[in-house]
Amino acid sequence: MADGGKTAADLGAWVCFEDECGRTLLRPPKARTWGRRGITPVVAVSGGPGGRVSIAGTVCHRLGHRSRLITALDDPIGGPMGKSPIA
């Protein structure tokens, strides 16, 4: 609650929640399969080694308006990969 007992709805304010994470893509996902005992099967996986990716997102709410989701994806080596507001 804001000063004087007013809520965000009373003030007509936006309420926003933000979160971010970083992901390292050094190894492809594991692939598993069955094989005879003593013979290790070789399984090809798609997607080779990658780099690091940073992801951020914000969700905004305001009474009487549509909610908004704003995302950003960043590749530290190659620069920004793009920002996509979804309305």
TrEMBL record:
This is Uncharacterized protein. It comes from Streptosporangium canum.
